[in-house]
Amino acid sequence: MGDKGQGDQLPLGSWVLRARVLSMGIASTPSRVDRRGVVVGSILVVLVLIGVYIGSSGLQWFDPALAPYLFGTVLAVFATAYRYIVWLRRPPTAMLNSRGWEAMRAKGRRGSNAVGLVGKLVNNILLQRFIAGRSKVRWVAHQLLFWGCVLAALVTFPLTFGWLHFESADESGRLYEAFLGPFATIQFDSRGFFGFMVFHLLNIAAFLVIAGVAIFLIRRMRDRGAIALERASDFAPLVGLFAVSITGLMLTASSLWMGGQFYAFITNLHALTVILGLLYIPFGKLFHIFQRPANIGVSFYKEAAEATGEQTCIQCGEGFASVLQMEDLKAVLPAVGFDYSFESGEHYQDVCPKCRRRVVGLAQVARVGGFG
Amino acid sequence: MIQSGYDPATAVFAIDQSRCIGCRACVAACAECDTHRGVSLIQLDTIDRAISTQTVPLVCMHCEDPTCAEVCPADAIKQNESGVVQSSLKPRCIGCSNCVYACPFGIPKYVASFDQMMKCDMCYDRTSEGLKPMCASVCPSEALWYGSDEEFSAKRTGTLVRNWQFGRQTVRTKVAAVVSEPGPVMITIGEKPTQWQDDPFGLGR
């Protein structure tokens, strides 16, 4: 193992090491519960429950049949918040998190940052243009999954929480009225095109998700690079999303074409897949839904860091990074157990990557006595 | 599952920059690797063309305790069971470039069009099946060499060294440097390479 050097940094360094070992799934030592994670998770759970109570007019519109979904949601909210807080405590993450918010709220830049935020949200979060740079097919698949899941979430959570319900608005029973909590919104013909679309939104979402899953599965089975690197954890979210979507479609199939046969069984099966899916979010690959938006903070950080000037290499004199990022990195390195300082007072992090490769090459060449 | 050839957990990847002839075959071959097709990730640098013909090929050295992974805020860089430090996980990498600036060997590349860090993963598509990495399979001077311990002893001279000293920091790597005598490779900074004519036979070393 690399020499961690600084004895006083050992507890934090060993924490990071333990976290890495945990994430590699090789071995683990019991770690203590993160109090802040528990507090934030609990607060969010209470907020969700208060939201359900108020939004459903004192549980008047809360459907007890959907209680298992609420149970799954509450557990997922707590676990996701807990993991997020623990993740933010890692020294490099904590540094970037605080710098990102600082950069975004910097005086004199708030207006331009607010405008920039809209563009970043659209490009990075909604359209995910960076994926298109990697592969167009991959982008299409991810967009299908993304919008399918967003659509499903926009329908499922308001229904589960009792925020959204429908009432018959005339004698014939065809005219429906949608309510957001106690507030009446639109009326529509339940057998018209709009009504058809409203009542099949989850089916539409399921088709989008299944199409995305199919493309990703084909890629995973055919792409030699993916085959070399993939693990079971890469298939788990695809299998989960497929299971949720197909059991959801089976409910519609049972209702429309099978006279309601197996409906109760499929209902339980669907609820089980959804709850397991929700519980998987904080523990698996889908946690990137919450991690990846940090990229927006990074882009604000990079913009702010540029204003701090360019760090010049002590070997070649060329600029290679922002002063702010290199200073931050020098602060983070000891926190994770590294000391790249020299006795002369110089710091290896003040050498640009190109010159690092040069000094490494020269150091090795100097140690070769002849043709090796 | 290793069908034949080399077990990536025990195989030797050796670098001897003094053998490099700067042909760039490794650069072209690297882009053929299936895990990052079309993007060459090997680093090949010159020292200073005015004073030296020396070229420096460097792959990821796959540190036992990788600095890049430790400074990654997104926890996107993982090490597998064979000790190979893999390229960043695509869903996680947030493109901050911390790893690019922290790596003591200057290896990771930030690819702006992908908004992602990419680095050598020792051609895991090939080495996981017992094959040699692309760069080592095409290197004509064997500056980049991959094989077993026994093969190295039989075919090459020199000692394999995996310890590097960067100031106060010791780094141990999976990839080895070929040197004459045992002992860590000491990295010094602040010295500029001198004209070869000043010391044509290397007597001043």
Write the SSE topology.
The complex is a heterodimer of chains A (372) and B (205).
Chain A: H1 10-24, H2 35-55, H3 67-88, H4 91-104, H5 110-126, H6 129-134, H7 136-161, E1 164-168, E2 175-180, E3 183-189, H8 193-199, H9 201-222, H10 224-229, H11 232-257, H12 263-280, H13 288-291, H14 294-306, E4 310-312, E5 319-322, H15 323-335, H16 353-365
Antiparallel strand pairs in A: 1-2, 2-3, 4-5
Chain B: E1 12-15, H1 25-30, E2 43-46, E3 55-58, H2 67-70, H3 98-102, E4 109-111, E5 116-118, H4 124-127, H5 134-138, E6 144-147, H6 149-155, E7 159-166, E8 169-179, E9 185-187
Parallel strand pairs in B: 1-8, 7-9
Antiparallel strand pairs in B: 1-6, 2-3, 4-5, 7-8
Structure description:
The complex is a heterodimer of chains A (372) and B (205). By secondary structure, chain A is mostly helical. Chain A has a domain at 3-22 and 311-368. Chain A has 16 helices and five strands. Chain A has helices spanning 10-24, 35-55, 67-88, 91-104, 110-126, 129-134, 136-161, 193-199, 201-222, 224-229, 232-257, 263-280, 288-291, 294-306, 323-335, 353-365; strands at residues 164-168, 175-180, 183-189, 310-312, 319-322. A three-stranded antiparallel sheet of chain A has the order 1-2-3. Chain A has a two-stranded antiparallel ribbon with strand order 4-5. In chain A, α7 runs antiparallel to α9 (201-222) and α9 (201-222) runs antiparallel to α11 (232-257). The longest helix of chain A has 26 residues, at 136-161. Chain A starts with 9 loop residues before the first helix and ends in a 7-residue tail after the last helix. The model of chain A is unreliable at 1-29 (pLDDT under 50). Chain B contains six helices and nine strands. A five-stranded mixed sheet of chain B has the order 6-1-8-7-9. A two-stranded antiparallel ribbon of chain B has the order 2-3. Chain B is globular. Chain B has 205 residues and is an alpha/beta fold. Chain B has helices at residues 25-30, 67-70, 98-102, 124-127, 134-138, 149-155, and strands at residues 12-15, 43-46, 55-58, 109-111, 116-118, 144-147, 159-166, 169-179, 185-187. Chain B has a domain at 12-153: Alpha-Beta Plaits (2-Layer Sandwich), CATH 3.30.70. The chains are: A mainly alpha (372), B alpha/beta (205). Chains A and B meet through α1, α4, α6, α10 and α14 of A and α2, α3, β7, β8 and β9 of B.
